[in-house]
Amino acid sequence: MALPIAQPMMSAADRLASVRGDIAAAAKLAGRDPAGVELVAVSKSRASDEIEALIAAGQQEFGESRVQEALTKWPPLLAAHPDVRLHCIGRLQSNKAAEAVKLFETIHSVDRLSLLDALVREAEKARCTPRVYVQVNIGEEEQKGGCAIGEVGKLVDAVRRSPLPLAGLMAIPPLDVEPSPYFALLAQIARRHDVEGLSIGMSGDFKEAVMLGATAVRVGTALFED
Ligand SMILES: *Cc1c(COP(=O)(O)O)cnc(C)c1O
User: Any idea which residues bear N6-(pyridoxal phosphate)lysine here (predicted)?
Assistant: First the structure.
């Protein structure tokens, strides 16, 4: 009987080094400084011990999609690791703004004035200033979060008039199509509005995103699964 072949398991540190290496290689190809690309580890649906392993390997930026899940999982992790910063990458309801500003250092999903107003109000109360990205519905899809392309200027101006720092533009391209044209389009819109930051790229496409100017990539699967 054949013995089971031992599969070499990649550790969290191996996966982190591999993703960082890919970011560095893509940045180099594009003539960019890899230090200009923030890696956000997307920890939605991951258990605390998996997250701890990445923190132990040196990862400090984490992203969650849901306020409720983040609230149940993160307070003890943040208390144990004060240098770790949490990013909100999912759709946000205005009635969660108070919790969001306390929990998240960066919010990638601001896509309407009413949400921005709620965040500004709650941030003032909580005496904090989370950075915000304006999320753009870059594929103009019905069910997708993000503002219409024609509304970017209005939202960017509103963030610039607010006390919250503008981190840049964020987008999630349509599924199952080549994402690069959408990344390029978002970069063009950002230039038009003098915006520097671009939150684009996930496990399947972060190298392309870095080559097209990503300043933040949001990577889940490639950091948490072999
Ligand atoms: C889940 C998620 C990611 C990470 O996706 P992976 O393919 O697992 O890397 C990035 N951005 C957003 C907005 C997500 O919801």
Answer: 44
Across the chain, mean pLDDT equals 96
Say how far apart CA 60 and CA 54 lie, in whole Å. Answer: 8
Relative to the CA of 202, which ligand 1 atom is closest? 9
Enter the tokens of residue 145: 């979060």
d(CA 39, CA 188): 22
| Paired sense of beta strands 38-42 and 166-170, if any | unpaired
Dihedral sign, CA of 117, 145, 185, 33?
Answer: positive
The answer regarding whether domain 12-219 maps to CATH 3.30.1490.20 reads no
Ligand 1 pocket (Cβ < 6 Å) reads: 42, 44, 65, 89-90, 172, 202-204, 218-222
Of 60 and 7, the one with more pLDDT:
60
87, 62 contact by CB (below 8 A): yes
Asked if 16 and 58 touch (Cβ cutoff 8 Å), the reply is: yes
- pTM here is 0.96
Tally the residues of the chain. 226
The pLDDT tens digits for 95-105 are: 999 999 999 99
Cα R_g (the chain), whole angstroms: 18
Q: For residue 155, which phi and psi values (nearest 5 degrees)? A: -70, -40
